[in-house]
Amino acid sequence: MEKLQYIKKFGESYMDIAEEIRRIEEELKKTPYNKATQKHIARLKAKLAKLREKAQSRSGGGGGKGYAVKKSGDATAAFVGFPSVGKSTLLNKLTNANSEVGAYAFTTLTIVPGVLEYKGAKIQLLDAPGIIVGASSGKGRGTEVLSAVRSADLILLTVDIYTLEHLPVIERELYNVGIRLDQKPPDVKIKVKDRGGINVTSTVPLTKIDKDTIEAILNEYRIHNADVVIREDISVEQFIDVVAGNRVYIPSLVVVNKIDLADEEYLKYIEERLKEFGKDYVLVSGNKEINLDLLKEKIYNKLGFIKIYLKPQGKKPDFDEPLIMRKGATVKDVCEKLHRDFVKNFRYALVWGKSVKYPGQRVGLDHKLEDEDILTIVIKRS
Ligand SMILES: Nc1nc2c(ncn2[C@@H]2O[C@H](COP(=O)(O)OP(=O)(O)OP(=O)(O)O)[C@@H](O)[C@H]2O)c(=O)[nH]1
Q1: For atom 32 of ligand 1, which residue has the closest CA?
Q2: Residue 99, ligand 1, Cβ within 6 A
Q3: Between vectors from CA 107 to CA 101 and to CA 113, what angle results, nearest 5°?
Q4: CATH code of the domain occupying 305-379
Q5: For a substitution probing ligand 1, which of 80, 89, 91 has the most ligand atoms within 8 Å of its CB?
Q6: What sequence ranges are listed for the domain OBG-type G (predicted)?
Q7: How close is the Cα of 290 to the center of ligand 1, in Å?
Q8: Nearest-5° angle of CA 156, CA 161, CA 162?
Q9: Is 345 in the pocket of ligand 1 (CB under 6 A)?
Q10: What are the pLDDT digits (tens) for 301-346?
Q11: pLDDT score at 151
Q12: What are the two backbone dihedrals, phi and then psi, of residue 173, each rounded to the nearest 5 degrees?
């Protein structure tokens, strides 16, 4: 009897999960969307989200866990695309062969990291081996690669001029492993309680989801008592994202390689298709080194770096080696980057530049810095 149960338990193989995913996807395709079916569709989508999570955790990747690539530098960008579009070529051309690359422990797959140094920023670039269709349902090694990509600060959706149709496919694969491109986390708070049922309040009219549907999704995740506060007009998918948790929100840039092979007319056609796709893009050639500086600039801009010049008290600012921070950084962030005791011993800071009203303005830890600010930090003498 015990043995039978054991077999039953482990008999639920990848194939069963993949089959179930396929069945639900099929049903979703067949079900027309309207007011009457909204709840049913939402339930199917929630089921699908749960199955995908299961598939990924079984194949060893996915989930919210960290990944085998050690983060280094000021930010990380990952090339994601099908094989042979030229990812390794681009990575090699963009990274300084002499840059120091840390020790990486990979056991099962090779993700090649390199460091792009641009305008003083050190950007770690990852070359994920070609992703495969179906990776999100747990097929092959693709899931591990995709989960590596989850930890990136920027995703470079990479295709060549002949394979633009891969873009939505890659985007879907990323979506299915919980990666949301160019989206903000939905402004929704869920507080799970012991009793009282489901209470939904919204500060804006909800046009894409109703309270019944919200309840159905929560029930699918075995939540029967909760206060839900919604502050934007979210979709069913966005609500499932919040309930499931474990989603990452990453900006993206489309990189189209091999433009050396396109004539003018074809280039025009490509640009039109790219505009339809709606994401920021850059056309390059790795082999012929076309637009690589533009690519670097776009990567740098997308990552939202700012430069901060440090000025020791009573001395000249150091313009040669600015501190590289991300947009939105505060004086506190800078302190934390410089020395672990700086926050504790902080007295005040002086700032010259765009973030202040007058030069040498005195500010506190919460002050938000802007690009090219000059900063003096005054700490307590110990
Ligand atoms: N014409 C042309 N060919 C290129 C360009 N960049 C790369 N290639 C070629 O495309 C082929 C694939 O390049 P890789 O850099 O290995 O592609 P990849 O995307 O890393 O491929 P996987 O390692 O299989 O994931 C090679 O033969 C390159 O020489 C380019 O700008 N123009």
Answers
A1: 258
A2: no
A3: 25
A4: 3.10.20.30
A5: 89
A6: 75-304
A7: 14
A8: 115
A9: no
A10: 999 999 999 999 989 999 988 899 988 899 999 998 888 789 999 9
A11: 83
A12: -60, -45
Ligand 1 contact via 288 beta carbon (within 6 Å)? yes
Task: Tell me the angle at which helices 292-303 and 87-94 cross, rounded to the nearest 10 degrees.
Answer: 80
In this predicted structure, what is the pLDDT of residue 4? 44
pLDDT at 109 (0 to 100): 46
Looking at residue 127, what is its pLDDT?
A: 79
Helix/strand/coil percentages in the chain, nearest 5 = 35, 25, 40
Compute CA distances 89 → 86, 209, 262, 298, whole Å. 5, 45, 18, 18
ipTM metric: 0.96
pLDDT of 70 reads 55
| Centre of ligand 1 from the C-alpha of residue 83, in Å | 8
Ranges of residues in the chain whose predicted pLDDT is under 70:
1-15, 57-72, 96-112, 129-147, 382
Q: What confidence score (pLDDT) does residue 315 get? A: 92
Q: How far is the CA of 287 from the centre of ligand 1 (A)?
A: 8
* Right CATH for 75-183+249-303 from 3.90.1150.10, 3.40.50.720, 3.40.50.1370, 3.40.50.300: 3.40.50.300
Pocket probe for ligand 1: among 84, 109, 163, the residue whose CB has the most ligand atoms within 8 Å is 84
Does 83 sit in the ligand 1 pocket, CB within 6 Å?
A: yes
Task: Indicate if ligand 1 lies below 6 Å from the C-beta of 86.
Answer: yes
User: 339 - beta bridge partners?
Assistant: none
Letter string b/e over residues 259-297, b meaning 16 or more CB atoms within 10 A of that residue's CB: beebeeeeeeebeeebeeeeeebbbbbbeeebbbeebbe
**Ligand 1 binding pocket includes 60 (Cβ within 6 Å):** no
Predicted confidence at residue 347, as pLDDT, reads: 96
Letter for the amino acid at 245?
G
Structure tokens at 107: 């056991």
CB 261 less than 6 A from any atom of ligand 1: yes
- Per-residue pLDDT reduced to its tens digit, 120-152: 888 988 877 655 555 555 555 556 666 678 888
Residue 257 CB–ligand 1 contact under 6 Å: yes
Residue extents of the structural domains in the chain:
75-183+249-303, 188-234, 305-379
Residue where the block lists tokens 């919980």:
178
